[in-house]
Amino acid sequence: MSGWLLAAGGGGGPVIPNFGQGSACERSGGWFCTDWVRANWDSTLQPALVQHIELTVVAVAVGFVIASVLALVGYRWRPFDLPLGVFTDFLYTIPSLALFTLLVPFTGLTVTTVEIALISYTLFVLYRNMVAGLRGVPEEALEVARGMGLTRVQTFFRVELPLASPAMFAGLRIATVSTVSIATVAAFVIPKGLGEPILTGLQQSFGTEILAGSLLAILLALTADGLLALFQRGVTPWSRIR
Amino acid sequence: MPTEAAELVFDEATKVYEGREGAAVDHLSLTVPAGEICVLVGPSGGGKTTALKLVNRLIPLTSGDIRIDGKSILEHDLTQLRRSIGYVIQQVGLFPHMTIEGNIATVPKLLGWSRRRISERVGELLELVGLDPEKDRKRFPAELSGGQRQRVGLARALAANPPLMLMDEPFGAIDPIVRARLQDEFLRLQQELRKTVVFVTHDVDEAIKIGDRIAILREGGRLAQYDTPGHILEQPADDFVAEFVGRDRGLKALALRTLGDLTLAPARPDGEDGLPRLAAETSVRDALALLVAERRDALLVTAEDGSPLGIATREDLLR
């Protein structure tokens, strides 16, 4: 981490990176220097974007698996629903910086620390939506399934799961978008992801770098959300008919 | 799988819910002959739906037995039993995520039919219940009207050609005009299919119209009377039945006969009687209603092509 820059910058005016070598825009403290973005894309921004995608995909995928197991338990055995709901809710309420601080003594300044935190935050939304989706399956559809001789497993895979999938997708989209956003905070622990250029930019009071990191995070969130929405349309064509 | 209609026997069938006073179905014994429609009717709390669900074991028997073609339902494998019984409910319960074809194909798929056989069967059934075998096949339930959905529900229950059908207020949630049409179509279908049917309703008129036999259940799930609609209307077993079928049971009995059933006086060959004309399949009740409304004493009964069959007077109708 380059904390000394923050300290050095604390005394006077803005710290200008690459002092004496930067472009005219950078030297004059421009609002958003596209030439800096072009010059630093390969070395800084693109790797940060790829790392950010990795952080997000791992967190959402693992969170999805854990939440699925929890949701099955909470759905089949109703008494577990409330405690599981409260537990995931509790995880969600812990401020991310506090959670990092709690975890670092155990898992250090590692990707593991970051992923534990990110996964914890996905559980709340995923769990709630999965259980709500399963509970929302029409009673009469379940009764007819039983009456027609579908076994419990057949009923789950042919009726309950497909009918719960729109709600599950809704949860997945929210979890993905919020993970993209929260993952920028990972830069406090490891120099990875789009949080890194944002943090560096903050420390150096360099607007272009902050903006570039932020814009990429926003674009990534929108793209992921759009892709998931398209995927859902393909998988559940019936859910759009009203 | 047997495709012939099956005889259904309730033998002292009893359901007592734990922690609830009294039985829901109390020593119910009756036989539904193969190929007939038995309507279970009665006030709420009479255990009609419970009795129905005992048959496919959605509700387990407390004591007694139910036999299909002589074999106890308890000796059947549960899923096999249910797959061999058509089941239709009031809320239809179509699977919203499946097309009409997917819905109808549910049981055939479970039974491992070939794709081709399923596809042919779906087309056949859609035609049978009055839907478009090509256009409606790929639609989703949300795209259909209530009446169309119940037709699909019926087609789905018939898909694997079950010998026995259980129908729980199938037309209860449908508006009166469409309901009457669905009842007529169902009766026409039954002429052809000759299934054994157990049909639950709370509507006496529907019971009289649909049933070959009617079982009237009273509070506590006790059988008050089991007989043909005509006998029940003419000779109610007790005050409860008489009150349940209504003071107008005499009129209701008229609905069981059509003008074609009457002995008619000869009509003038030229058909110029100046009398109101009614088709032979009109019920005597409807004919009487017309005479009362038009203040007439007689009417001309006509064949399907409109040719005169004979004259019926008001006295003939009431005879």
Largest sheet of chain A: none
What is the gyration radius of chain B calculated from CA atoms?
Answer: 22 Å
CATH overall fold name of the largest domain in chain B? Rossmann fold
Named at the architecture level, the CATH assignment of the domain at 57-190 in chain A is Orthogonal Bundle
Provide the structure class of chain B: alpha/beta
Average pLDDT, all residues of chain A: 88
CATH topology of the domain at 57-190 in chain A: MetI-like fold
Q: Helix share of residues of chain A? A: over 70%
Quick one: overall form of chain B?
globular
CATH architecture grouping of the largest domain in chain B? 3-Layer(aba) Sandwich
Number of helices of chain A: 10
Number of strands of chain B: 13
Give short descriptive properties of this protein:
heterodimer; A: mainly alpha; 10 helices; about 0% strand; elongated; disordered N terminus; B: about 325 residues; alpha/beta; Rossmann fold; 2 domains; 4-stranded antiparallel sheet; globular
Structure, explained:
The complex is a heterodimer of chains A (242) and B (319). Chain A is mostly helical and 242 residues long. Helices cover 76% and strands 0% of the residues of chain A. Chain A is elongated and about 75 Å long. The termini of chain A are far apart. Chain B has two domains: 8-254, P-loop containing nucleotide triphosphate hydrolases (Rossmann fold, 3-Layer(aba) Sandwich); 259-318, CBS-domain, CATH 3.10.580.10. In chain B, the strands form three sheets. Chain B has a six-stranded mixed beta sheet with strand order 6-7-8-3-9-10, sandwiched between helices. In chain B, helix 5 crosses helix 6. The N and C termini of chain B lie far apart (47 Å). The A-B interface holds A 138, 140-141, 143-151, 154, 158-159, 162-163, 236, 238-239, 241-242 and B 56, 58, 78-83, 85, 87, 89, 91-98, 106-107, 110, 140, 142-143, 156, 166.
